[in-house]
Design goal:
This protein is an all-alpha fold. The protein has 3 helices and no strands.
C-alpha cells in the first residue's frame, strides 16, 4: 500500500508542476501580446493627438505657452513608447511658432 502511494506521489507532483508551469507560461505569453497591443494603441492615439493639435496651431499661426507644454508632454510620452513616424518634424515646426498671435 505504501508503495502505491509513493508511486502516485512521485508521478503526481512532477505532473502537477509541469501543468502549472505550462499554464503560467501561456498566461505570460498572452499578457505579453496584450501589452504589445496596448503599447501600439497608445502610440497611435498619441500620434493622432499630436498631429491634430500641431495642424490646428499651425493654421492659427501661433502656439500658446500652455499648448506648448501640453505638446511637449504628449511628444515626450510618444517618444518614450517608441513612436517616431515623422511626427518629430511636425512638432519642431510647431515649436517655431510664436507664443502669441501676431496682430495684422
Amino acid at each position: 500500500m505504501n508503495t502505491i502511494i509513493l508511486i502516485i506521489i512521485q508521478w503526481l507532483i512532477p505532473f502537477a508542476c509541469a501543468g502549472a508551469f505550462a499554464f503560467i507560461s501561456k498566461q505570460l505569453k498572452d499578457n505579453s501580446k496584450a501589452n504589445k497591443a496596448m503599447k501600439e494603441s497608445m502610440i497611435i492615439l498619441l500620434r493622432s493627438q499630436i498631429v491634430g493639435k500641431a495642424e490646428n496651431y499651425m493654421k492659427q499661426g501661433y502656439l500658446p505657452d500652455y499648448a506648448r507644454s501640453c505638446m511637449e508632454d504628449l511628444f515626450g510620452q510618444y517618444k518614450n513608447l517608441g513612436g517616431n513616424h515623422g511626427v518629430e518634424s511636425l512638432v519642431e515646426q510647431c515649436y517655431k511658432l510664436p507664443p502669441v498671435k501676431k496682430e495684422v
